[in-house]
Design a protein that fits this description.
The longest helix has 28 residues. It contains eight helices and seven strands. It has a seven-stranded parallel beta sheet with strand order 3-2-1-4-5-6-7, with helices on both faces. α1 links the parallel β1 and β2. The chain has a single domain, classed as NAD(P)-binding Rossmann-like Domain (Rossmann fold). By secondary structure, it is of the alpha/beta class. The termini are far apart. It is globular. Helix content is about 45%, strand content about 15%.
Length: about 240
């Protein structure tokens, strides 16, 4: 595909699964063409692209890139623009998450957690900023409520998300007035994959929220849609979607 799209175009990192896939579906339902970024989840990305293209022909593509590779990140941005000769929304959703207890931390953990949560989002913003300026677009970064609260045994991850929030606020100033930059800090939406949690611990987390319930991926996807379409006077903000945590 190389012809210019009349529909707005959204690039979503980590779009094959979980919050990324939910966001792709919601934005697609609201008229966006979708660039689905993935790394290892190519099969899931292919299924999602097929689903979206069945609903509207030639409206979704897949671009595979390793966010640990800065050159690949920049190429991801360039390729995303080239698909439809435009880009309107960047959702920096991809995120590595795992514990790094003090005394066991190593440089590989630092590199992995900072790459997906801070470094890659920044260099991707760098790669596509001019395209977003052309269409008065926006950037939406996925943070975490623990970026401000801290989380035991996850110091590197929370530091990376704190950097993500600082990036959001700095780029909001730097890219204004042409590009809005906001963030979303989810609460208890999905349990981390691969982590065994007891029902008791899950309930304790839920009970800490004012609404006393789990959120759903659609809650985050709809918040992203709001920031993309209906928040023309918002920039530099971190929207907490956490049930009043």
């Amino acid at each position: 595909m190389s012809t210019a799209a009349t529909q707005p175009v959204a690039l979503i990192t980590g779009a094959a699964l979980r919050l990324g896939a939910a966001t792709a579906r919601v934005l697609h339902d609201n008229g966006y063409n979708i660039v689905i970024h993935c790394n290892r989840s190519l099969d899931a990305a292919s299924l999602l692209a097929d689903e979206l293209n069945q609903n509207r022909q030639q409206s979704a593509v897949i671009i595979q890139a390793d966010l640990l590779d800065t050159k690949a990140v920049i190429a991801l941005g360039e390729k995303s623009i080239a698909v439809w000769n435009r880009l309107d929304v960047l959702v920096n959703n991809a995120s590595a998450f795992y514990p790094s207890p003090l005394g066991e931390i190593n440089e590989q953990q630092w590199d992995e957690l900072f790459a997906s949560n801070a470094k890659a989002p920044l260099f991707l913003c760098h790669a596509i900023a001019d395209a977003l300026k052309t269409n008065k677009g926006c950037i939406i970064n996925l943070s975490d409520l623990y970026a401000r609260r801290g989380l035991s045994n996850h110091s590197i991850y929370t530091m990376a998300k704190a950097a993500n929030e600082a990036m959001t606020k700095s780029l909001a100033r730097e890219l204004a007035p042409d590009v809005r930059v906001n963030g979303i800090a989810p609460g208890a939406i999905l349990w981390p994959p691969g982590e065994a949690m007891s029902d008791e611990n899950k309930q304790k987390i839920i009970d800490r929220s004012s609404l006393k319930k789990m959120g759903e991926p659609a809650d985050i996807a709809n918040a992203i849609l709001f920031l993309a379409n209906n928040a023309s006077y918002m920039t530099g903000q971190i929207l907490h979607v956490d049930g009043g945590r």
